[in-house]
Amino acid sequence: MIHIESLAALRAVVRDAVASRQAVRFVPTMGALHDGHAALIRAARADGGLVLVSVFVNPTQFGPNEDFARYPRTPGADAALATKAGADALWAPLVEDVYPAGPSARLSAGALGAVWEGAFRPGHFDGVATVVAKLLVASGADVLYLGEKDYQQTVVVRRLIRDLLLTTEVRVVPTVREPDGLALSSRNRYLSADDRRAAAAISRGLRACAKLAADGERRADALLVHLQDVIGGEPRVTVQYAGIADPDTLEPVTLLNAPARALVAAYVGATRLIDNILLVPPTP
Fold it and tell me: What angle do CA 229, 233, 236 make, to 5 degrees?
């Protein structure tokens, strides 16, 4: 696997890929890689071409009281996992490469970035939109691989690509979960042993909500009560928000007449986790 730091080196690798008519398949990450990231890399590998993975802890998507400084950074383990999963190149840019004049130019994620996660993390999706645009321009990515766990992010990025008239294709890979259902996340390593056991209540609640919807309950308020009752059965977990949204517009849904997304953010102890699930009503 090629290790890339400078933009010049990245552009050289991309030029070689283009010259040999290989598609650039791009997996952007913030490092602390786990099996969820490996699934993205394997999906890219299966599609063929140049599999490029980036590791960059983006400062502009963290709020002033969030965990930027302590966000896990594991470069050695990241390189090993990326290599094993099938990456051809690992790009680890410096902050000054991505923001050469400091974080001045900034894109807006618009209304999609102001709801759900955006309502509790103001400016977060503006930072996501800004860095994704920069990474796509720098990498020349033909296909971008994102994880379904960060569902709102996938919607924001799809809209960003459309609005900027970019040609990059987005492929969303299903969430990878632990045997008890907990969605894999780099932040899971913050959890104590007791909190780790408690965190499984989030996915239990989502699965219970999806089953209730599949059994015919179409009222969003009833589905949300059930979801929160299941999660609330675990005293170590505190729901910050729970909602049911249109999968394309992220607007709240009151009646489930079509597939929708249940979205949850919750604190398990001091650790904030997010998750989601597709709700599919029965066919009339």
Answer: 125
